[in-house]
Amino acid sequence: MKKSRKRVLYILILCLICSMTLLACGEKPADEQGKAAQETQPITISLVGGDWGFPDPFAHQPRDWGGVYTMLIFDSLLEEDESGTIPWLATDWNIENDGQTYTFDLRKEVKWNDGEDFTADDVVFTFEYYQEKNHLYDLSSISSIKKNGDYQVKVELKEPSVVAESRIFQTVPIIPQHIWQNVEDPKQFHVTEPEKAAVATGPYKLADYQQEHGSYKFIANDEFWGGSPRVSEIITVPCSESALSLLNGEIAITMISPQEIEMFKDKEEFVIEELKPYHHKWLCFNLNDSDLADVEFRHALAYAIDKNELLERMYMGVGNPGAQGGIPMVHPMYNPNIEKYDYAPENAIDILDDLGYEDINNDGIRENKNGDPLKFKILVMSQNARAAELVQIHLKKVGIDTEIMSNERGAVDKMTAEGKFQIVLQKGGYGGLSGDPDFLRRNFNPGSNTYHNFSSFGYNNPEFNELADKQQAELDAEKRKAMIFEMQEILAEDIPIYYLYGQGGYYVYNKNIYDGWFWPAYTPLLDRSKLQYCRGAAN
Description:
With 539 residues, the protein is an alpha+beta fold. It has two domains: 2-241 and 507-532, D-Maltodextrin-Binding Protein, domain 2, CATH 3.40.190; 280-503, Dipeptide-binding Protein, domain 3. It has helices at 65-73, 120-133, 164-169, 177-180, 189-192, 194-197, 242-247, 295-304, 307-315, 345-354, 385-396, 409-418, 439-444, 462-471, 477-494, and strands at 2-3, 20-23, 78-81, 84-87, 90-96, 101-106, 142-147, 152-157, 204-210, 215-220, 233-236, 253-256, 270-274, 280-285, 319-321, 375-381, 401-407, 423-428, 497-503, 506-510. The strands form five sheets. It has a six-stranded mixed β-sheet. Strands 1-5-6-8-7 form a five-stranded antiparallel β-sheet, with helices on one face. A hairpin with a 4-residue loop joins strand 5 and strand 6 (101-106). Helix 8 runs antiparallel to helix 10 and helix 14 packs antiparallel against helix 15 (477-494).
């Protein structure tokens, strides 16, 4: 099977970053190599702010903007546009042996932003180095990688894979061998050698990063192989009132909650795009806790929580109640026949009674099997405390007491990964609940997960694990779909995570500032595609 994806790309380049400002300056005219000339325009964009780590493949935070910032600087072999997967550092690729062997033709005359040439040696080195050093990219499916000359590499997988293009070749940032080959601790390299850690082939170069302020400055890489970027400088700035900033013309695009949308509906300069509710909030249970380890007890918790009330109070009903199979309702591979756990406190009470949790002293709170009050600590990011308070009210109605412990995002993520919690209210979605449903394997198969905030803690179901491993190598679409549906049924029965709701919302942008936004094929966000940030001619 051969896939030839050679094409000239006119890629829209902007920069958006939640709490971010983009200032566009002059352009290079098209040159003899076919680089595209673009008109220039000043653009200010705000979406998110704060510190997401140093933007190299080893130091950035795995969620949200950490990867987006990094991929402004670094390139992968493949990319994604409106139509699907497209060539990037690779110009063409062959797939053989039913999806087990990939051969990539590499782009020539590409240079690292320190002036050195990019070759096949860098690609081979990248994958071998990640396998030895890195934890952010799952390369366990790769058996070997070899070069065939200076501009071709051959990758052998351990078994056929239907997800290699999207999960490996489109995601893994290629790094320069001449910079990293003698680096023993890649996670700390940016501390001592920040300029070298940011050497890459992408459309931007890192000009400044201030961790204490959570600020970044990127400048255009004028030697970018894909053409001279339209936006010449990207600066992130704090923006606590992004809706007002958009309304006042200070920014070009932002994400808006349902509560804020009315202020834009009758203004002709603004375009409103509705988000698909992939972004979720959920309760993650530590299954090492003796009470939470009991699946029947988790069923009681599920029936006790009113998901629809949470969605109504938090997002005015815009979105979907959580689906307990680990795949959102809007996903094309969602199984509609899984258990829904509609609000039924009477069911929760019956289950708790049958399990022997009684309110011995009639104070409204049941006692656990040791005779102590049945009480749990709910860890939550401070901005999500209101949702936790509603869960607290629901659980108290069936005799379960809770204490809410708020902390900042980084601390909550760290405690989640280390299992230092009983129940944690987490959030996320577009990186771990969208795209190819192989994310079920990554989230729930022990040893496969890299994004711990999407994962259960202590969950290990051999039946699920077997299906999770088989589906990624199943090339028959219908057989694979049946496996994915069965995996959802197992998760809905086990409830290692209880999904509360998928929150809806909107993108709003000022078309008078910029009107070139597009929806990538598999990414349900208007502002996360790299092709929104850079524009050039990819030959």
